[in-house]
Amino acid sequence: MKNGVSILGIFVADTAYLAARMPVVGETIRGSGFAVGPGGKGSNQAVAAARAGATVSFISKIGRDTFGDLAQKTYADAGVTPVLTVMDTEPTGAAFIYVNENNGDNAIIVYPGAAGTIGVEDVEAARVTIEQSAIFVTQLEQPVAAAQRALEIARNAGVVTVFNPAPAEIFPDVLYGLSDYIIPNETEAAALVGFGIETLDDARRAGDALLKRGAGAAVITLGGRGVLLHTSGQSDHLPVFSVGPVIDTTGAGDAFVGGFSAALSAGRDPLEAVRFGCATAGISVTRRGTAPAMPSVAEIEAVLATTH
């Protein structure tokens, strides 16, 4: 029987710098905070899904170094089953994250390191993990050929596929047809469809375009404006969950994807899964960091209970 969530993605060590603004080229400014923690979109999503109650396997590659040790500890603490190749020839990935101290906005540079070498052969080696899961999730931080092969394996095995096309970059059109759910944010959706997502009608037009390309459903996250679940038969807009002051939006998208996928794996219908994802993200933005900000299933259920 298929069970839980498998995720292909990258781990990076997040090095986060808090400051009033970004420096310009050639300028040095004083920051007001610094932290090192676990990150990477796929890794964050794995932690989010596990803390949200799912059985989770995470497929990736890391280096044999201090940041790699951080990855292993992160999965042990979160209850994620690591399916990792440890490399001696490449370092574990790392990310520079600027966080605006006034409003929580962020800018990020990612170097994937060992995870940048994930190939089709690595995906084939994890075939059984993918085929035995109920939900499979991937993104575009690792090479696209690996994402495509993993989606093909999942689809052929009858696993529900979730594709988060982030960061925004060109990928083969075949990936749309391999995606039961495609989950871009408003910036990524705009890059995919070629027009801005300024209104809810724009988001619905974008959803139509993504469905026309073959996606089963489009789930477009709209930042503070909530989330649109758009299928051939329904189009539902759900608002954000405001559970406290927003201090760091860095991991919000990953929190949503992880919570959404966990809810799907638990048998919730898509609309309820979107609500669950919204609650997960709503809690995460009230905390600093990415993986460390992911809420527990009890916290998520408590928020949902107060908003029905």
Annotated CATH topology: UDP-N-acetylmuramoyl-L-alanine:D-glutamate ligase
What structural class do helix, strand and pairing data support?
A: alpha/beta
User: What Rg is obtained from the alpha carbons, in whole angstroms?
Assistant: 18 Å
Q: List low-confidence stretches.
A: none
Average pLDDT, all residues: 95
CATH class: Alpha Beta
Main sheet, how many strands, which sense, barrel? 9 strands, mixed
Strand order of the largest sheet: 5-4-1-8-9-10-11-12-13
| Strand coverage percent | 15-25%
CATH hierarchy: architecture: 3-Layer(aba) Sandwich
Number of strands: 13
How helix-rich are the residues, as a percent range?
25-40%
- Give the CATH superfamily: Ribokinase
Query: What form results from the Cα inertia axes?
Result: globular
| N-to-C CA distance | 32 Å
Order of helices and strands: EEEHEHEEEHHEHEHEHHEEEHHH
Domains, number: 1
> How many separate helices?
11
